[in-house]
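Let's practice the habit of predicting before peeking. Look at the sequence and jot down your guess about where helices and strands might fall. Then scroll down.
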Amino acid sequence: MFFVHRRELIEQIEESFIQQDVNLEHTTIMTVGKVANRLGKLPKPTLIICDEGHHSRAKTYEKIFDYYKDVPRLGFTATPWRLNGRGFDDIYDEMIEGQSVQWLIDNQFLAPYKYYSVNSIDLEKLKKSSTGDFTSQSMDDAIGKTIFGDAVSAYKKYANGQKTIIYAHSVDASKHLADEFTRAGIAAKHADAKTPKAERDKIMSDFKSGDLKIISNVDLISEGFNVPDCSCVMMIRPTASLVFFIQQSMRCMRYRPDKTATIIDMVANYQNHGLPSDDREWTLGNRKNENKIKVKECDFCHGVFMRKDWQPACDFDRHPRWACPSCYELLPYQVRDAGTREKKVLKDVELEEIKQRQSKMAKRNPYKSKSIKNIYKILESQKELGTRPIKYPFNRALHIRMDQLHGDIPLGELKELAELTHRSLDGVIYSYELARKKHSFKENDTIQINF
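Done guessing? Here is the structure:
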């Protein structure tokens, strides 16, 4: 007995069985709902195979397992993970882990990928429901309306011409996205669970043949959807679920020679889940929600990479900065407010206002300022306007503030300095520690970072 959670998958399973010379007369392949409603009427199986086994905690699945308690069972899943943290050790006895995603990429079982984050939503508006994922209303509030045009622009920039699956957060949003692409001259259709079967089959057929470039949907094309030549996905649905993230982001990674998949994350999902190829520890037992993300986004090309892949700049000892492994720009440079789109280039009138403020700031004495943020602003203004021979305002600000506080700079001020200078907090702390070693203090002075 082989059961799946969606009828679209039945045909795929049957085709796979036929390819492997399995006699279908010895099998029962149905949706989980049909199996649950026909218990006692179906032939008793000698083996149960459960597709997408992370659904095994659902009541319908447990009903089947309870009825066939004495039948061995196998569950297959790429994501043995539940949003509530509950495990599967009372359903399955052992976990057999396959190779890692990175191994599958290196050995040509999955396509390599490029991951771009073009955050176009207000993340602070996202609120979680009792299920643990974000509420529909909060996603509406966070996403807004302008994202539809942004999606078309991002597609043209990063994946123009590629067959793409879009994951939207609602049916209305999905329809709007399809309409926006169509108006831009890109063949696009929306599909959902209520789309008539004949229409949906035509959409899938046109997409596979290449007549259709974009399919926009809401979680319909996720688990088990077989489109080997889909090369791009766009995530416009924020999610707290690792299952949703992996299933959707990797939908474009089916292997094909010379293929490089493109993942466009419009909602910064990587901040919660990392990258698809990250190493993860899976377990049948209950788990704690502790997921330390070790990725960073490039503010220039919007590529997202593992932190270990970033290269230190040649002047790292003096200015701790890292080079993007894709475009090689030094980061971070520009301010990006949480949940807002990138700040636009300032107009000439705004630049003039900045110069006027710099002129006023440059006349102040940095040694009389009581915060490292203001000290840096004064020194930077003096450097920009040439009123004082200052080469490195950042380092000078650290030394002046250490003199004022005898080396004890609070962490809060270091955070402000990091934000002001567009550097990472780790980089600022690193520079601070280097400055401490070179700085002279009076006897018995103490040096520490206040956490």
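How did you do? The first helix runs from residue 8 to 19.
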